[in-house]
Every structure is written in structure tokens, then in C-alpha cells.
Specification:
The chain is α+β, with helices and mostly antiparallel strands. 38% of the residues lie in helices and 21% in strands.
Length: 482
Amino acid sequence: MDVERIRQLEPRLAAYLERFGDCFGRRDTKLHFPVYVRGQLSELPRKSVEPMALAASMPVRTLQEFLTCLKWDENRMRERVASIVAQEHADNESIGVIDETGWVKKGDQTPGVQRQYCGSVGKQENSIITVHLGYVAGDFHCLLDGDLYLPESWSADRPRCRRAGIPEEVVYRPKTEIAVEMYDRAVANGMHFDWLTFDEWYGDKPAFLRALKARKQKFVAEIPPDFRVWIQAPRVTKRAFRRRQGRWRKIPRLLAGSRPAQTVKYLTQSHPALAAQPWQTWRIKDTHKGPLIWRVKHVLVYIKDEQGLPDGPYHLFVCFHPFTDEIKYFLSNAPAKTPAKKVLRVAFGRWPIERCFEDGKGEMGLDHWEGRRWLGLKRHLILTNVSYLFLAKMCQELRGEKPRVDSLPGAARGRCPDPESVPRSRNVHAFVQQSCTTHRVLPTPQRPGPHLPHACHHPSIASHWHQANGPAALRRKHELAL
């Protein structure tokens, strides 16, 4: 990447921001938009409204009003982000990722703030939680949408909501409903997800899984060990049956004496279809720490529908890490003949959204917002997505021919390939040692850590790539050239 190419970034940013020009009805309001985005892309240590406004020689109150008072169409801006990604980054192996993040807030006036588990600090803390939809296509990833999780305590206290500017129609909704709404918005704006994936907190919600299946969306869900399934579907009858008291039993129903659904942990240890099945070793991908190796068992299962009847078949993957003894369980509604390597690629492809959260907080000030108005927070989330999309586009374009650390040897540049099956006859430790010697990377086994609640986002993935190609490095090169 030469200096001339870096100098082109400034006009490229201006042209990119112009694509959102129709979101503003007034010219003076529109002039605040690049100030906010450039502030997020700057090297300011704190990217809240006050330092960004002062850096741009603008009255602080003016930029605060841009977020909370001035009239402009933030919903159209959110739709435009999805449209740009759909038109310019479409991929037939795209993955949508649903996850949440949180950040600590003082006081009790910030919309949605309460004492709750915050993944950023790994404990119960006074914080707010936002649910997000991310997009992954090869080596490109970005955030498409984000929304505030409004706790029940806030929803029940409407005077408090009015003080924070929360509309009457905005009430408590489970995080899974927020996720489905964001998915529907993205699809309505032209997005297509070949797969959708999420962690075990969302995977443990059958109603959420049914909602995605009703939309004919393929998914790979991590599920908890106590998730219940059948390996052999029990028989269902539609025959009417009257009890002695004269009441009719519901139909259809399971036949009397049918075995109940069992937990996936129990079936892994006890059912012949899994317990007697040999582990198959899979090389998921290569990382800067060495090849990522998991042992896998696979079987088709059935889950309960809304009436308690068997629904399926679904893929169940039991994944065992040979170095840490960690076990993960994945459920997928992909067609029965879908190759295991495709499902595993998605199952272990959730890490880019962690990268998005880390970049959003560390580089663009996602968690630097300081305000007490719901509209200001909503617009801040959307503007952060706009800023992140520009950096993601530039990083992908300027990366050039540099190799990616998360690619298998010989894989096509710019795509995370399917996992690779390792022959059973080969010892896993010997295979890892040989692979690391061949590709000159040292194996660093994953360390077993304590089980943490949902939304724990640790900034530990792909740090080597990020240091060389991440937004901070890109901005430093940009500013040196300018």
C-alpha cells in the first residue's frame, strides 16, 4: 500500500458519507454528520460528544442536539447501511451473527441502566445491554443493527421512561424478540444470510429457533448441555381417547409410554448412537496460535415443537477439545445431507462479532456515549455502524495480498475455508506438532477458564491480524499520509 493510495481515503470518506445525504432534510443538520463520524474515526482518547465537538471547534451543545433534538431520519440511515452491505458485500456463504454486549454506566438516568450481568467486566454491574446483528462474508465483517434491551423494571415505570424520552410503544421485550426484529429489518432491506449463528443463551430458547425455522432461515445454534432432544422420534397418534371423568385427551399426542426427551449431555454419555460412536478429529482453522483442533460426534435428532411433539430432523454436533476437555453442543436445522464441514465452519465462525465489539468500543467509542435520552442512544448505535462499515470496507480493500492468519494452507485468499477432517489413524498431538512445524506457528493450547454467564466478550481473538490490519493501524497510516 503506497502513500498515494492512503491519501485517497479522505475523499473516499467524503463520498461514502454523501451516500447518507438524503437522511437529512436541512443542510445545517447534515453538516454535523461528518463531524460525528470523523470524531469516531479520530485518535481522540475519549469519543463522547464533548471531546469530538471541541476537536472540531464546534459548540458542544450543537453536537448534543444533533443526537437528541434535531430532526433527521435515523431509520433511513440504518436501512442504508443494510442496503450497502447487501449490494456490495453479498456472498453465497454469508453468516449472520446475533450477540449482545454491555458497558458500565453510573447513575440511574441512562435509558435501560440497572444492575445486571455485564460481559465487559464479567460480573453484575450497573450497566446497559444492547443486542446486535453482525454480518460475516469471507474476511469482511461489520455490524448491521443494534438495539437497546429495556429491562422489565424500566418498562413498568413509564414516568421514568418519559423522562428518558422513551416512546410509549417501546416496552420490555425478550432479547430473542429484539433479535428477530433486527433480522426481519435486515431481510426487508435486501440482506440475505446463508446461515445464522448465536451462542447457547439464544440457542436455549425453542420459540426463537421456531421463529427462524418459520422464516426458512438455516441456523447453527450452540445449545447448553441440558437441552432436551430425541435421537429416535417417538410415535405420535391422532386417535381420540376419553378419560374416566369424561374429558378428552388432546390430539395429536405422543403414544402412552413414549420415552421422554433426554438432555444432550446424557445422550452423549449413554445412548449407543453417540457413546459408541468414535470421535472424528477436525482441523477447524489455522490461527496465529496454531491449528484449532476439535473432536466431533454427529447424529440427527428431534426437538420438541410448541405442542411437545417431535420436530426435525436436526443436526446435533458434540465437539470435544482434546487439550482443555471443553465440550460444546451445536444444533442445526440444515438439510439432513448437509456436509458436516459446512456446519462446523458456521459453528466456529462466531468470533468476528467479538472483533466488531472490541473495535467498536476501542476504536469508535461505542461505549463512550454519555447521555440520558433514548433517541441519542439509538442514533449513536446507528452512527457507530456507519463508521464501522467504512473502516471495514477500507480494511478489506487495502489489505491487498497479505495472508490471513485464519486461513488453511493453500486456501483462497479472503475466505475462511471449510474445516478439514483429520484421518483417525493420526494422533492429534502429533498432527498439531507437525502442522505447527510445517507452517511455522507454535501451538498454544486454549486454557480452560471458568464458566461465565452470557455476553462475556473477551478481546482475545485474531489480535495478531488486528495489529497489522485493524482500524487503529489503518487510521495511523492514514494520518501519516495526510
